[in-house]
Design goal:
It is elongated and about 60 Å long. It is 54% helix and 0% strand. It is mostly helical.
């Protein structure tokens, strides 16, 4: 959900797709933002009025039925009017995630003011805060969502928030947890990218490279996660002075990047 928060080099804002997390839409993935050497902006001040039970106006075209059935099911503990308002705020937050993350965060907070004990709501606030670069608030909300039983794969986001607040060692510890060991596929790859970034934050570039290459990378893969994985691998190779290998993996990243989430093609041009 961020707005003009600068993405790390090679990490353009993802386009709307089935892979993108939308608070209140689906819960199969999360924003893909981390990587080695990613600059992090100063955290914004919290809104001192965030607990007000009002919130921003909800666009008239937003309906509660647009919320995913899974999340609507979590709202059944609320009275009908409250559930309807919370659902509409969550849908609005999802729609605004890329274009105006600050507005998305305001809608998510409005939902939380009415239903702070629901995992999906705390998750929505956490994702919006993450996208706004408010790592501390995002970390608190995402951890709360996990304690409340969220079934979303939030570990990569949590680890990246630890990096954001200046604790790369804790990001590495997250990856050593039993829950992290259960991750598979793209969820595991996302955590690999974050942990490699944490190692790079500590100047441990050889360790970062080892994390990214275990298991061995398959250059035939395509998609957002593959493109980002190849990209950060290439960037780490370049940091280690292995220019020719880096160029090859930037080429792999450009080929995998069917959605245009990186600037791999530009990097290839620079290095060629």
């Amino acid at each position: 959900m961020p707005h003009d928060k600068p993405a790390g080099r090679g990490e353009r804002r993802p386009q709307r797709s089935s892979n993108g997390q939308r608070p209140g839409r689906d819960r199969t993935s999360a924003p893909r933002r981390s990587g080695p050497n990613r600059a992090r902006p100063t955290q914004p001040n919290h809104d001192t009025d965030e607990a007000r039970p009002t919130g921003p106006p909800i666009p008239s075209h937003i309906e509660a039925k647009q919320l995913s059935p899974e999340i609507r099911g979590e709202l059944t503990t609320l009275d009908r009017a409250t559930a309807d308002t919370v659902a509409r705020h969550l849908v609005a937050a999802g729609e605004l995630l890329e274009e105006d993350p600050e507005a998305a965060l305001a809608h998510a907070r409005a939902a939380r003011a009415r239903s702070g004990r629901i995992a999906a709501v705390r998750e929505a606030v956490g994702i919006a805060a993450y996208q706004c670069g408010d790592w501390a608030q995002a970390l608190a909300e995402l951890r709360a969502a996990r304690r409340m039983g969220s079934r979303s794969p939030l570990l990569a986001l949590i680890a990246d928030c630890e990096r954001g607040v200046g604790r790369p060692e804790r990001a590495i510890e997250v990856a050593r947890s039993d829950d992290a060991a259960q991750l598979t596929g793209e969820d595991a790859d996302e955590l690999r990218i974050v942990v490699a970034g944490a190692r790079s934050d500590l100047g441990q570039h050889e360790q970062a490279l080892a994390i990214l290459s275990s298991p061995q990378l398959d250059p035939s893969r395509t998609g957002q996660t593959a493109a980002r994985l190849f990209y950060v691998y290439a960037e780490t190779l370049l940091t280690l002075g292995r220019r020719d290998e880096a160029l090859q993996w930037f080429l792999h990243a450009a080929r995998a990047d069917v959605d245009g989430v990186t600037d791999a093609e530009e990097r290839v041009t620079e290095l060629s």
